[in-house]
């Protein structure tokens, strides 16, 4: 097929797709128009029913907690796959590589920044039922704190703190805790992952009952999963850069 | 739409285009990170702070980092085996 035919074919199909897109766009509801009843229902029901101020978290860890468990396990599978694929081809151990950032000021500020990011992560997990945030969001922030160590301090230090042997058990612990909480609900004669504790006072840090625990175990699982993924890629890079 | 929302949508649209037309892979990953920050602002101004928080780490830091790592690994392999 020569160039001219290809361009002609492309122009024809692009025009077709463009026309369909425009047709579809013309039929869209106007901006900000919301027809579904579900969002309004949850927003009105979650605070009195569950004492959870953040409706998003109420959906993710309570009303649809079972779906979130599936997502946890997807992340678990992805992290395991990354680890298995990369470790298979990596030739040498990188544990003794020292890749220091040669500036004391950068080191010190990065250490403080890592602690600050860690604190923000914990804060996001802890306040997940009150303000935007929760297990997943807080978990990724927690994992990012270790990246700051790598970027601004030293690979060796990062490897000491987040070594595979330390980082790996974190994710199964969190994911197992998530499933375990569901099983506790079942054992008490409730539905899977149904709240089995007092729902507390609305607006307090401890409100929401066991949903808060579910959010925390999700945070642990997500932080662990991302730590494993970061770890494998950073080890790969170190092994490649130092030719070991 | 308020002006901030229009600006965020325009930034994300331009960012997506720039990411697609970039040819160098590392540059593409870097642009993807900037585009990720644009997405974070977009989610924020459209009142989805929960999504913005996860996008902040995942699409602005984690995903580009994993990409750069993979690119570096492949290039190192190519160098060792003498070209692609």
Shape of chain B: elongated
* Residue-averaged pLDDT of chain A: 88
Apparent shape of chain A? globular
E-strand count of chain B: 0
Oligomer kind: heterodimer
Helical stretch tally of chain B: 3
Verbal overview:
The complex is a heterodimer of chains A (244) and B (84). Chain A has helices spanning 3-26, 37-50, 55-63, 65-89, 104-126, 135-152, 155-161, 164-167, 170-187, 210-241. Chain A is mostly helical and 244 residues long. Chain A has one domain. In chain A, helix 3 (55-63) crosses helix 4. The longest helix of chain A has 32 residues, at 210-241. Chain A is globular and about 60 Å long. Chain B is mainly alpha-helical and 84 residues long. Helix content of chain B is 87%, strand content 0%. In chain B, helix 1 packs antiparallel against helix 2 and helix 2 runs antiparallel to helix 3. Chain B is elongated, with a radius of gyration of 16 Å. The model of chain B has no long low-confidence stretch (mean pLDDT 88). The chains are: A mainly alpha (244), B mainly alpha (84). Chain A binds chain B through residues 31, 54, 56-57, 124, 132-134, 136-137, 140-141, 143-144, 147, 226, 229-230, 233-234, 236-237, 240-241, and chain B through 1, 49-50, 52-54, 56-58, 61-62, 65-66, 69-70, 72-73, 76-77.
């Amino acid at each position: 097929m020569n160039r001219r035919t290809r361009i002609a074919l492309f122009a024809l199909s692009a025009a077709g797709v463009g026309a369909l897109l425009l047709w579809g766009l013309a039929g869209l509801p106007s901006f900000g128009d919301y027809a579904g009843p579900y969002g309004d229902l949850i927003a009105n029901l979650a605070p009195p029913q569950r004492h959870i101020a953040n409706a998003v978290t109420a959906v993710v860890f309570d009303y649809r907690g079972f779906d979130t468990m599936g997502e946890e396990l997807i992340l678990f599978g992805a992290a395991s796959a990354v680890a298995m694929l990369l470790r298979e081809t990596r030739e040498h151990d990188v544990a003794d590589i020292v890749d220091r950032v040669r500036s004391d000021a950068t080191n010190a500020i990065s250490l403080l920044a890592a602690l600050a990011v860690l604190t923000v992560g914990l804060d996001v997990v802890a306040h997940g039922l009150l303000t935007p945030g929760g297990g997943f969001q807080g978990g990724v922030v927690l994992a990012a704190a270790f990246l700051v160590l790598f970027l601004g301090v030293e690979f060796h230090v990062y490897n000491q703190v987040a070594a595979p042997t330390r980082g790996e058990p974190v994710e199964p612990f969190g994911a197992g805790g998530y499933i375990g909480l569901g099983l506790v609900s079942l054992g008490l004669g409730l539905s899977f992952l149904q709240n089995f504790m007092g729902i507390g006072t609305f607006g307090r840090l401890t409100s929401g009952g066991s949903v808060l625990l579910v959010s925390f175990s999700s945070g642990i699982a997500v932080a662990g999963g991302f730590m494993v993924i970061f770890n494998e890629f950073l080890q790969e890079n170190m092994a490649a850069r130092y030719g070991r | 739409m308020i002006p901030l929302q229009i600006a965020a949508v325009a930034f994300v649209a331009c960012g997506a285009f720039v990411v697609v037309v970039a040819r160098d892979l590392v540059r593409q990953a870097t642009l993807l990170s900037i585009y990720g920050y644009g997405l974070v602002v977009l989610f924020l101004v459209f009142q989805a702070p929960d999504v913005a928080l996860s996008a902040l780490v995942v699409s602005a830091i984690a995903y580009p980092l994993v990409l750069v790592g993979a690119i570096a690994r492949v290039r190192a392999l190519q160098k060792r085996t003498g070209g692609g």
